[in-house]
Amino acid sequence: MMIRNISIVILSMLFFACAAENEKKEKTQNTSEIIQNPAAIDTAYFAGGCFWCVEASFEQIKGVKEAVSGYSGGEKKNPTYKEVSYGKTNHAESVMVLYDPTVITYEKLLDIFFVAHDPTQLNRQGPDVGKQYRSAIFYRNSKEKNIALKKMNELAPKFEDKIVTELTPFTKFWKAEDYHQDFEKKNPNNRYIVNVSRPKIEKVAKTFKDILK
User: Fold this and answer.
1) What pLDDT is stored for residue 75 in this prediction?
2) Amino acid 40: pLDDT
3) SS3 sequence, the chain?
4) Is the dihedral of CA 84, 86, 88, 92 positive or negative?
């Protein structure tokens, strides 16, 4: 019995030693990645109607690592698509843009945002009507706010109608259900994608052809 107990102790020591070594390697790898990429990936948050359109518009741009569909600007925690689409949460269909600031600037993301949708439509985008489809920029700090204000003032004369984009402090982003992520890529023949999303995505591609992936 004593020999068996000693064997168990030795095996346990080896297991924890291996686990500690793996954790050490993982931390070393993470540190190495940070050193090789000193500029951390940054984030920006926008709402411009259906998030399928906005997400796909950004994901084709160099420097954008990923665009994630979700909900922001409301009070409800863990909102569902059904709740948001029925206008019960005050959230807007939004997109979190993860980007490399050494490749693309926040200002350039704003340029793309204002091409990807119509910022003069109040609480709607085309066939989608309701505050959940409003145009909004969720700024995280005074720098982003000032850049957005400057951009809106610069672009105002280029639109026949007044820009109604909301400039709102960022609070929380709730990731949308999995089936919404990369919806345009997964459902290229969907009628909404073909008739509503695709023209917007192609407009962005044409306008920013020099920075497409």
Assistant:
1) 92
2) 83
3) CHHHHHHHHHHHHHHHHHHHHHHHHHHHHHHHHHHHCCCCCEEEEEEECCHHHHHHHHHCECCEEEEEEEEECCCCCCCCHHHHHCCCCCCEEEEEEEECCCCCCHHHHHHHHHHHCCCCCCCEECCEECHHHCEEEEECCHHHHHHHHHHHHHHHHHCCCCCCCEEEECCCEEECCHHHCCHHHHCCCCHHHHHHHHHHHHHHHHHCHHHEC
4) positive
Contact 176, 71 (CB under 8 A): yes
Q: Which stretches of the chain drop beneath a pLDDT of 50?
A: 1-38
Q: Name the nearest CA neighbour of 125 among 67, 179, 196.
A: 196
Distance CA 71, CA 128 (A): 16
Determine the angle formed by the axes of helices 51-59 and 198-207, rounding to 10 degrees: 30
Whole-number Cα distances in Å, 124 to 20, 37, 129, 157, 178? 54, 40, 4, 21, 24
The radius of gyration of the chain from alpha carbons, rounded to an integer in Å, stands at 22
Token look-up 């346990």 returns: 12
pTM of the prediction? 0.81
pLDDT at 39: 56
Active site residues: 50
Please tell me the predicted confidence (pLDDT) of residue 171: 97
Residue range 42-211 in CATH 3.40.50.10860: no
pLDDT value of residue 36: 42
